Amino acid sequence: MWTLLVFFFLTFQTGSSESSCEVVISPQQSVVKFGDPLTAICNASGSEIEGMGWESTKNGTEFTEGISSLPLKIDKVDVWKIDPMCYANTPDDQCTTVLEVTVYKTPDSVSVSESLDEIGVMREGQPYEIACSILNVAPIRYLSVIWYIGSVSVYEEHFNRSDERPINVSSVLKMTANGSHDGSEIWCTAKLNLQTEGGPPSRESVQHRLTVLYTPVCSEPANETLEIPARGNVTLNCSAKGNPKPSYSWHYPQNMPSTAINGDHSIQTLSFAVPGVYTCTASNSQGTTVKYFTLVEAERDRTTFLVLLGVFLTLGVLIIVGGALFLTSSGRFSFKNCPPGSSSVI
Ligand SMILES: *[C@@H]1O[C@H](CO)[C@@H](O)[C@H](O)[C@H]1NC(C)=O
Ligand SMILES: *[C@@H]1O[C@H](CO)[C@@H](O)[C@H](O)[C@H]1NC(C)=O
Ligand SMILES: *[C@@H]1O[C@H](CO)[C@@H](O)[C@H](O)[C@H]1NC(C)=O
Ligand SMILES: *[C@@H]1O[C@H](CO)[C@@H](O)[C@H](O)[C@H]1NC(C)=O
Ligand SMILES: *[C@@H]1O[C@H](CO)[C@@H](O)[C@H](O)[C@H]1NC(C)=O
Ligand SMILES: *[C@@H]1O[C@H](CO)[C@@H](O)[C@H](O)[C@H]1NC(C)=O
Ligand SMILES: *[C@@H]1O[C@H](CO)[C@@H](O)[C@H](O)[C@H]1NC(C)=O
Ligand SMILES: *[C@@H]1O[C@H](CO)[C@@H](O)[C@H](O)[C@H]1NC(C)=O
């Protein structure tokens, strides 16, 4: 049994060493721009190498005897698929290795489609589809398209297609218009992620400004509660954002004298105010937003009372403590500071 195993092992080892042959291509992979040159070197190792060659649609080399190293030199890679294969022959075997070549081409153009101009002005809450067209790019499987709105990336798309030749593709961004987008720039970028150092840079489309119509939004806080100060003005700030620009209307408590109201449309200054609810309505073609200002009497009456009470209490305590001290010291004065012997002075 053991003999059999050892015999088998020996045979196996002898067999493998007989056809021992290995070809190594350097670099193992190559990324080349369409039209650029490509070079590689193939080394063969093993005993009994008879010779080697390159099989390639461009600048291939015939089988050459008596060598173990052979370069491949292509002046201009002008095909989209090229799989150069290096081979080496031994008397009873052949070993081969294929050089993986990625031929790329950066896009001729990257642009946000005209549909954006057709869309024109957007309305908040409505869905929109905007296309980015990328012309003449290869290979598509390495392409990533990133959409930006106001320098924030909002969507990234990859293309799971095996095309080697350049094609046109389009990435469609599905978005819901939002007031926060109004006035922001939108654009798309296309990049080939070739996993090589300093690969081709990404290419950006022209930026387009978004216009979104939206209902007025009051700046925080949504509602305000303010104290009426003893002196000075009360400012009611109802500034709201909106497109179109909001217009404002105000509603005051009935007993509020209109002569005490000053200010422009979004901000009112009250030189005299009565407690109550002041209502500001900001509206535009898209809708209306209401902000409530609740004005309350400052707690000055109670505060005054408390202050007075505090003063009286303090005074009272001071009087009692002071009186006690005075009594004590005068007691001391009469008994200690006037010893019997010195009473003659008085
Ligand atoms: C391939 O062989 C050449 C010539 O013998 C040598 O200069 C080179 O370093 C070898 N390359 C590799 C990757 O082994
Ligand atoms: C590669 O092949 C082209 C024609 O197929 C030839 O003009 C060129 O000289 C070759 N380059 C090398 C380095 O052999
Ligand atoms: C707009 O975006 C804000 C936050 O970015 C979100 O709270 C709000 O719901 C969005 N409005 C619409 C109509 O989608
Ligand atoms: C790409 O597409 C193939 C076939 O359509 C699918 O099997 C594969 O999972 C896809 N890969 C990715 C990353 O989506
Ligand atoms: C890509 O689009 C351009 C311009 O529309 C066109 O000339 C070209 O033929 C298209 N290429 C492919 C591969 O469809
Ligand atoms: C503002 O006050 C009104 C009336 O009291 C109320 O209906 C509304 O919900 C309040 N809004 C906010 C955001 O608190
Ligand atoms: C109060 O408002 C009125 C009118 O806007 C202004 O003339 C006055 O100077 C303000 N008073 C103070 C204390 O801010
Ligand atoms: C009113 O509020 C807006 C938004 O918070 C702010 O930009 C503006 O300076 C305020 N105006 C006044 C007079 O406080």
Automatic annotation (TrEMBL):
**What GO biological process term is on the record, naming one?**
cell adhesion
Which SMART domains does this chain map to?
IGc2
Superkingdom to which the source organism belongs: Eukaryota
- State if DNA damage is listed as a keyword: no
The cross-references to Gene3D superfamilies, in alphabetical order and at most eight, read: Immunoglobulins
Q: Which UniProt keywords apply?
A: Membrane, Signal, Transmembrane, Transmembrane helix
One annotated GO molecular function: integrin binding
Ranges for domain Ig-like come to 107-207, 216-291
Against Pfam families, the record matches this protein to: ICAM_N, Ig_3
- The membrane-spanning stretches of this chain are 305-327
Per the record, the coiled-coil ranges are none
The positions making up the signal sequence are 1-17
Q: Which SUPFAM superfamilies does this UniProt record tie to the protein?
A: Immunoglobulin
- What InterPro entries does its record include? ICAM_N, ICAM_VCAM, Ig-like_dom, Ig-like_dom_sf, Ig-like_fold, Ig_sub2
Which protein are we looking at? Cell adhesion molecule 3-like
To which species is this protein native?
Answer: Oryzias melastigma
